[in-house]
Structures are given as structure tokens and as C-alpha cells.
Amino acid sequence: MKRFIAYVVLGFLVSTSLCYATTIRDKTTFTGPTTIKGTIQGATPFVMEGATVDGYQTSVAVTDPTADRTVTIPDATGEAAINCIASHDYDDSVVDWSMTVAEAKCSMAVFTNASGAVNAILPAASAGKFRTVYNNSGQAVTLKVTGQTGASVATGKYAIFTDNGIDVIEIYEQP
After folding, report:
1. Domain annotation covers residue 67
2. Torsion angle of the four alpha carbons 121, 122, 128, 134, in this order, in degrees rounded to the nearest 10
3. Residue 104: which domain range?
4. Which residues, 6+ apart, have CB-to-CB distance to 135 below 8 Å?
5. Is residue 163, in this structure, part of any structural domain at all?
6. CA 129 to CA 107: how far, in whole Å?
């Protein structure tokens, strides 16, 4: 059984409620504050379009839980951390790797197969961003922001770096 409740004051619709099991179809637009109480079902219940309506969307997917889970969104401004690994094979060369914005957002970087000392260049510093680096290139690799000096990690080593808002600094390198 579905029930729809509407409140009209002086000829203006001021509030609506959908009660009980309700299916909201594709292309439904909500304007103003929207409150949803209950369970939103589906493996990918939210698909969002960006500012440009095109063939690319962002989906929020949910893995079948094995117990009750809570994900808390903090009262803070920032970006969600996505666990990804940016890797680069220098293909036995000494050409610097200019990382893309997406690659620079990854929390880990792996370098392989350089024939001399090389650079991995970030497009910009992200103050407070941490990343783990594994250098298996055979040469020293310097991780830096465009136009800055950065810090190097020796071959065969793991290191932890952070961005200070201007450049990359090394916090720890495996002995």
C-alpha cells in the first residue's frame, strides 16, 4: 500500500511525503531539502551526473554486508581518499614521469625499470597528503612537485612521503 501526503498552505505546495514502500524511477529530480528514511536497496543505489551531462557518471556501490556497518562522513571539508596504486615503468629510460591528477591522488606509487636517476613529478602539492612509495626501478627516483626539488628514494626501498603544501618531503625511508 502506498500513500502520498501533500500539505498545501495558501495555494502553495509546502511539503510532501511518500509513505510505505515507494519506488522512485530514473530521471526523478528533487529540488530543495530531501529526507529519505529507511533502507535504500541495490548494489549501486546512487548514480550521479557531474555538472556536464555526458556519458560519464559516478556510482556509489555497496558490497553485500555480512553484518550491520556504519560509514560516518565527518564534519569537515576535503576529498574522499581512494585507495589506488599509481605505477610507472620507465621502460629502461631516464625520461621523467609527469603524473596525472588522478595518479597523484593515489596513496601508493610504484616505480620500475629506469636506466638512470629519474623524477616522478606531481602536478601540484596537496597539503597533508601522504603516500607510500616503492622504488624498484634500479635507480634513485625523486618524487617532487613541478618546479620544486622534492625528495629521493633509493632503489629497492619503501618510503613514506607527505606534501607540505609546496613540495614533497620524505618522512621515512626503509633502511
Report:
1. no
2. -50
3. 85-173
4. 111, 141, 153, 154, 155, 156, 157, 158, 159
5. yes
6. 8
The answer to whether 62 and 43 are in contact (CB under 8 A) is yes
Report pLDDT for 175. 92
User: Is 151 a domain residue?
Assistant: yes
Give the DSSP letter string of 115-155.
Answer: SS-EEEEESS--TT-EEEEEEESSS-EEEEETTS--EEE-T
| Amino acid (1-letter code) at residue 93 | S
Amino acid identity of residue 174, one-letter, is Q
* 92, part of any domain: yes
Give the pLDDT confidence score for residue 35 in this predicted structure.
Answer: 74
Query: For the chain, how many structural domains are there in total?
Result: 1
146 vs 80: which has the higher pLDDT? 146
Question: For residue 135, how many C-alpha atoms fall within 13 Å in the half-sphere facing its CB?
Answer: 25
